[in-house]
Amino acid sequence: MSEPPTQRDISAAVYELERERREFMREAMRTFDQGHYQRLRELQEGCGRLGHKWRFTHLGPLGSPWYCCGVCHASECRKEES
Hints:
Layout: H1 7-50, E1 54-59, E2 65-69, E3 75-77
Antiparallel strand pairs: 1-2, 2-3
């Protein structure tokens, strides 16, 4: 008769299962991301040529304002000039 698993055994098994999932998702997304982010950059560049529709979103950790385009979701930080 084998002993029931300990909490340490269960914790290790859960950790391994989650690690396997992260690795699977990383591999599954790698191919998709290559084409996706290239196409996204192209679309954002096209939007920039037409003129982004910037809107203020928040202040960054150093107090600089961040803006996001309402059309293509490009973002940028505009440092305040002293």
